[in-house]
Amino acid sequence: MNQFQYVRPTKAQAAIEAVAKDPNARFIAGGTNLVDLMKRGITAPQKLVDINRLPLKQIEHQGSSLRLGALALNSVVANDTQVRERHPLLALALNAGASPQLRNMATVGGNMLQRTRCTYFYDLSMPCNKRQPGTGCGALEGINRMHAIFGHSEQCIAVHPSDMSVALVALDATVQVSGPRGSRSIPFADLHRLPGTTPERDTNLEPGELITAVDVPDSPFTKHVHYQKVRERASYAFALVSAAVALDIENGIIKAARLALGGVAHKPWRLTAAEQVLVGQPATEETFRRVAAVAMQGAKAFKHNEYKLRLAPNALIQALKTAAAA
Amino acid sequence: MATNHDPDLPAPHDEHRRNFLKQSSLLTALALVPSAVVEAAESKLDERVAEAIEKIPLSLKINGKKHKLKVEPRTTLLDLLREDLHLTGTKKGCDYGQCGACTVHVDGLRVNSCLSFAVMHDGQEITTIEGLASGDDLHPMQEAFVKHDGFQCGYCTPGQIMSAVACVREGHAGSEAEIREYMSGNICRCGAYANIVAAIQDVKSGGKKV
Amino acid sequence: MDIEPTFSKTNPTAGVVGQPMSRVDGWAKVTGRATYSAEYSGLPGLVHAVLKTSDVAHGRVQSIDVSAAQRAPGVLAIFTHQNLPKLAKTPNSPDDRKAFVSSPMGFFPMESDQIFYAGQPVAVVVADTLERAQYAASLLKVSIVPEATISSYLDPKAQLYTPKTVKGMPGVTKRGDAQEAFAGAPVQLTATYTHATIHHNPMEPGATTAHWEGPNRLTVYDSTQGVSETQKTLAAMLGLATEQVRVVCKFIGGGFGCKAWVWPHTTLAALVAKAVGRPVKLVLTRPQQFTSMGHREEQAQTLRLGATREGKLLALIHDKSSTTSPWDDYAETNTRITNMLYALPAFEGTYHLAHANVMTSTATRAPGDMPGAFALESSMDDLAYQLGLDPIQIRLLNYADKDPSNGHPWSSKSLKQCYQRGAELFGWNQRNPKNGQTRAGKTLVGWGMATASYPVHNSQGNARVRLYADGHAVVQAGATDLGTGTYTVMTQVAADSLGLPPENIRFELGDTDLPSTQWSGGSTAAGRVSSSVYLAAQDVWQRLIKVAVQDNKSPLYRAKIEDVMVVKGQLLFRTDPDTGEAFGEVMKRAGMSDIEGSALGRYGSSYEAPRAAANADPNKKDHASEHSMHAFGAHFCEVHVDPELGTVRVTKWVSVIAGGRILNPKTARSQVMGGSIFGIGAALMETTERDPHLARYTNADLAGYHIPVNADIPDMTVEFIDEHDPYVNAMGVKGIGEISIVGTSAAVANAVFHATGRRLRSLPMTPDKVLAAMREPV
């Protein structure tokens, strides 16, 4: 790993300025992904701006939403009483991710900004448009068992690995951002990008922009929720496919629904069309099967990940059933 | 197989051949595109940065003892412990946060010390396996690991024990299933899992301060 | 001596052997005080070496630009093929290779510009700190001109051939006319089984600290399963006398076969340490571990099984295809177990290999027997279902009362008891004979079982006992404790052999300055080292008896040596056990503070061959070599299969093993559980995938390569059948390290079949494969 300059500002503005004016500077919080990327030489910042001393750890209810500070640890959020009561889906998703140790390091902001785990991205000697634009996509004709079935491009078929983000996109969260040109809010669904012709860009954040918090709006989704994660071992593995489901059910009829899939696309994959189909329908397996078919429209698989075309709807159906029965 | 490339090597599948050629030309291209690290070095940025900063001061309390250190920012907490302070009880199994052998407590939280730069912990309190026992008296979790044979080769063991202590303190040792889930961030290739669970249950029900 | 001493004769009553004693090295391991090979931090001037490896799987190094790396701070030296010091003898020369005890492949990197596999070392950077060495290595610009790459035996360009020999076994084995017998069999089963590339992935990666204490004096702290083999091989490569190399390995973080050899990184560490004149530490990164210490090769096995309508086997034809390196004809010997496990009148086994751009595969826990048993035990399960027989019944029907591969009687075999006890513990008689019938909520539940077996290989080694007059002893053998309990069980054996409490014994291992013994591999260490220790203690007694009978103050004065026996440290008349004295008395009067004995212990069919040790009996008839020696066992497994998600979880496990004398049931149980988990991993999740075009591993770390975690593993039941084998060695011990994995993957696959009605013949059984199988008709 290269030498780098290390600074530890205590004010957000100083941190933002430090990164905004230096294209080779990066924020670091938990470090669980960035340190890994630096060790492998995938990224080589000249300056790290440690934001851990910024006052961004709060979890508090404000107005009609729960604000999660960007530096709140994944483990703290998952165990927080307000989170568990108001947004149990988020707690489930967080606890399905990584390991207890990593959840004690990873922050809310860092989790959503983690980069893909595509092995072609991680191996410097493999072609990868995301890591080195123009070199090609090794996964396209390589080993692509873990890769995307939605929203991929010829340039990139990687998936976003975060579990937390799948819950947050389903729960209509909003990301609060501060940057050199002031603050703004980004709907969670617009934070991450599809690869298109610029797979090197994971998100719509501008240089120097710092995530300060995530707001999760109050919702009726406090009971009928489930996060179904399918992985190759029982714990401590990235999802092959995951499904986040939040339902509002009254007298057996679905009043509102939020659905998202993980492990299927370059971003957490919200299923708005499928949600529409659920509204007004009885919470039955028959309904869920119809909805799953809608959810899978437009999916396209590659040589080794065709199984996801069956696994994703099955996971969604199981999540719907479990959520409805909760 | 011939040790030298045979230009007449049959290519039974044209499709494959085409792929190979495409891939091999990619490789040639790759060799010409320098990696991020090489790029940085060539712009001499790195040398300027290195001159400007070198080692920076760091205060840590490790196993109850205060340390005033000077470290390179790129030194991980794990390498600081193992290479600089010779606290080799904390192990390096993967170096990428994928095995848990490097688990230590930072301000009471179990973390992977390999994924953290030491400088980020200025002023914090670190506990490693060497700091768990008080003098010659083993910590109850250490005793239980011996009693229940919670290890074989012993290489993942310090990480398992640090994780197990945290698992109990966090309140995640309520059931066998919960222990298994909350101990899944520590890989044991020898396969001592059932014994590790037994050791944790023993400590949990043993009533000693953990 | 008249009687060949055996432990069961001299220790008829129970001591600490066979007791579940806690590990004597437990304290060191739970406190972090145990020192592994990369942890000799106190060496003066220690510096760090880092490997730079090839991105390309086949080609030639065109250039290595070292300029940026050389400018980097702290760099002491950079070695490439152009300036690496030459080896005295190299694996690249077939003649030289004969001098090596333990070189795993016919290739040594960095001796030329040739690149044969991705991950092959192309440079070594030495710097004063680890960070600086790593950084400098990342600055090397290596240009390689790529050549056509063959990724595996499945590559369309690969050419399969049958080698003359595979690990000393013929490439083709024929017993009877299997082709004809198969053709005439009323029941015929043909199936192909595939097995992914598996990596050992011990938690401690390969690590070497090399310290030249003089121009011809090298000490190497190496993570190795055999210090003696490493010593001899390194000495030959470096042009030193064996005694000029000392190898130390007090603690090793797992091995499983990959640390049984001297791989290039160890030799490179020694070479560069000499060149820079400082002690050098070289530790493989986890990704480098995948391309530095071998693997279990990916393979396909086609089994053609012929049987009568009643289920009696008539013929087995076993073909194995697998990948080997460009230089070696290496394959696991899968046909060893398929040729011997059942009463089988006709057998034919053939190996098919293809050279590809990959390093040579190597011994991996139960090499050959593990994948061989997966194929055979899956086929036996198929046969049982096809004929409507219980899986245990079909195995009893074909029970081999002698070894069918060579006609020898078994030295001991308690397999029937293993089936019976395993079935009891598991509740097998509650099994629904039909598959796909049992549900638990959304999951399908299935039960499966399989037979396990592993041979007792020949091996031998020395031990030394120094007994002090004050009742303490130091016992030594240059063995390795892989976590298997060697420190502990040898302490127990020494304690009983000397009649002392175990806390009075210090057992030392892991150093070539100690009596030499063979590696810990092939499940040989427990039987061999314990026999050596036991016989060395007998040597002490023989020497002490000679002192006593010449001492006119001893009650044994002028007794014949053969009339004196030693019971729990008391020297007594055989005919009058009330007369005698404690060893300490004899020693005190003789002014001896301590006395030493040593012995050569043997394990396996050479146990009774004429030996060099002082206690040999040249007239004794050699019964051992007339017997076939194996441990046997059975594994039982319950799985829950989610047919919609394709996930398989093992929910119950029983292993019953007959492995001769069990020295310590606590450590033995752990070892068997560990082997089973290794097998469960191979069955359900472990695979290393090479890119089909680039022949590079695409998942070479512990997030990409899945080893079972705690949540994957249920509580496990392990029992041992009490077995007394007089032929295997002086202690009656058979190894258990490897039998613990044999049959495990089949037990899981058979349970999946019982749960779902679908036969999965491709390991690992990941969700994608289970989902595909669920779409097939039952």
From TrEMBL, chain A:
Annotated source species: Hymenobacter aranciens
A Pfam family: FAD_binding_5
InterPro entries attached to this UniProt entry: CO_DH_flav_C, CO_DH_flav_C_dom_sf, Diverse_Substr_Oxidored, FAD-bd_PCMH, FAD-bd_PCMH-like_sf, FAD-bd_PCMH_sub1, FAD-bd_PCMH_sub2, Mopterin_DH_FAD-bd
Keyword entries, A-Z: FAD, Flavoprotein
PANTHER family the record matches: OXIDOREDUCTASE, XANTHINE DEHYDROGENASE SUBUNIT C-RELATED
Keyword Transferase: no
Lineage: superkingdom: Bacteria
Keyword Repressor: no
Protein name according to UniProt: Xanthine dehydrogenase family protein subunit M
Residue ranges constituting the FAD-binding PCMH-type domain according to the UniProt record: 1-221
UniProtKB/TrEMBL annotation, chain B:
Gene3D superfamilies registered for this protein in UniProt: 3.10.20.30, [2Fe-2S]-binding domain (1.10.150.120)
InterPro entries: 2Fe-2S-bd, 2Fe-2S-bd_dom_sf, 2Fe-2S_ferredoxin-like_sf, 2Fe-2S_ferredoxin-type, 2Fe2S_fd_BS, Aldehyde_Oxdr_Iron-Sulfur, Beta-grasp_dom_sf, TAT_signal
The UniProt record lists the keyword Oxidoreductase: yes
Record key words, sorted: Iron, Metal-binding, Oxidoreductase
Domain 2Fe-2S ferredoxin-type as annotated: residue spans: 56-132
SUPFAM superfamilies in the cross-refs: 2Fe-2S ferredoxin-like (SSF54292), CO dehydrogenase ISP C-domain like (SSF47741)
Keyword Signal attached: no
PANTHER family: OXIDOREDUCTASE WITH IRON-SULFUR SUBUNIT, OXIDOREDUCTASE, IRON-SULPHUR BINDING SUBUNIT-RELATED-RELATED
Protein's UniProt name: (2Fe-2S)-binding protein
Organism field: Hymenobacter aranciens
From TrEMBL, chain C:
InterPro entries found in the cross-reference section: Ald_Oxase/Xan_DH_a/b, Ald_Oxase/Xan_DH_a/b_sf, Ald_Oxase/xanthine_DH-like, AldOxase/xan_DH_MoCoBD1, AldOxase/xan_DH_MoCoBD2, AldOxase/xan_DH_Mopterin-bd_sf
Keyword terms, alphabetized: Molybdenum, Oxidoreductase
Pfam families noted in UniProt: Ald_Xan_dh_C (PF01315), MoCoBD_1 (PF02738), MoCoBD_2 (PF20256)
Keyword Oxidoreductase: yes
Sequence ranges assigned to domain Aldehyde oxidase/xanthine dehydrogenase a/b hammerhead in this UniProt record: 31-148
SMART domains hit by this protein: Ald_Xan_dh_C
Protein name: Xanthine dehydrogenase family protein molybdopterin-binding subunit
